[in-house]
Write a structure and sequence with these properties.
Length: about 260
Amino acid sequence: MSRKPVIAGNWKMFKTVSEALTFVRGIRQATVGLGYAEVVLCPPFTALALMSEGLRGSGISLGAQDVFWEDKGAFTGEISPVMLKDAGCSYVIVGHSERRQYFRETDEKVNRKVKAVLGHGLTPIMCVGETLDEREAGVTEKIVRAQTTAGLAGLAPEQVAGMVIAYEPVWAIGTGRTASDEDAQSVIAYIRDIVREQCGETAAGNVRILYGGSVKPENTAGLMSKRDIDGALVGGASLEVKSFTEIIKRTSETRR
Ligand code: PEP
């Protein structure tokens, strides 16, 4: 089964609109001819519309970092899938651990968001992953099973087949500590098994499952050489054109 790798950059709460546009000019030039991996940039909401114009014709897709599940209404401060689509997004990160940790996002909310995103023809990048305490307590599989099962509840197998899931161990995010290639492969293969049990073989064979957590140019090739790892969700290293391009390049070389 050949799944096209995805390299998605999560900018978190970094970059003004002008900084974002400078990045767009740089990445367009730097990635000419690096066409194999699918590249997604997820800037803050404020930069989406202008980045969508700036990325036109580049082959680079745009994603948001969060969404609310309603189409419109009296929900001050929220952004709907309709608005994200209108701003040029095709991907939406859902259930990032920072949202789960600081904004009390539950599995049930993640599931509602995933359904809303899919309902509008956008692709969710649904994040799952254990904390350090959970890993040390030996419950990694239990946690990712609960998050994956609840996040995918009620979805049709064809919807799951087109989704992206990101395994992001919380202890590896922004810490410089990466899961070993073998550990990342083993948890991601386990997530694929959960998808197989819940949604069948076609969904399991097609869903793309990324690794995230301190991905850098130096550890990209090792991670991407693993059979179940279909790309990366990159935080810190996606903020600089040079490091992000290098990750895209090494992924394309490893997976081609
Ligand atoms: C992330 O924000 O999803 C992430 C993986 O961050 P970092 O690459 O900085 O660990």
